[in-house]
Design a protein that fits this description.
Blueprint lengths: L2 E8 L2 E6 L4 E5 L15 H4 L3 E2 L5 E2 L5 E2 L1 H16 L1
Antiparallel strand pairs: 1-2, 2-3, 4-5, 5-6
């Protein structure tokens, strides 16, 4: 599944929408570790998030997130909220 749009709402939190309309907020606070993700702890860098031509989320420093895991997380979260 490809990401259609992404927006940084506040530090470490993204609003993500997929091509099929699945959308929601993803909190990355506990995922920003390691050399490529450390720069994203800067609010200025985190806010520079974008979607690449393959439908993945990325930042100018080379950090990226595969859409599959995010999609599954949002779908699972939605199912829990409906229960």
């Amino acid at each position: 599944m490809r990401v259609q749009s992404v927006k940084a709402l506040r530090p470490y939190v993204l609003s993500v929408q997929f091509e099929d309309g699945t959308s929601g907020e993803i909190d990355l606070a506990d995922r920003l570790y390691g050399p490529v993700f450390e720069p994203l702890k800067s609010e200025t860098m985190f806010m520079k998030v974008a979607v690449d031509r393959f439908g993945a989320i990325y930042w100018p420093n080379g950090a990226d997130l595969a859409p599959d895991a995010l999609y599954d997380q949002l779908r699972h979260k939605g199912q829990k909220e409906l229960a």
